[in-house]
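Problem: given the chain below (71 residues), write out its structure.
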Amino acid sequence: MAQIDQISLRADATGSLELVCERSASEAPEPRVRSFTGKDEFGLLIDNLNPNEQVTLFFETTTDPEPASLE
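Solution.
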């Protein structure tokens, strides 16, 4: 069974959040990216990856000492 890890990120000063993924398979077909939104959540679904393919997620962090609020 897959484990779900959680981290908190903050939007930047413009209200944006950029997530960049890099895949391990260089000769694979282009992935298909779909988005979903709900009242309090949103996300991305990525199809056309190889089974068990490793993907690295990159995102910007700040040095803001204030902890992210989960409210």
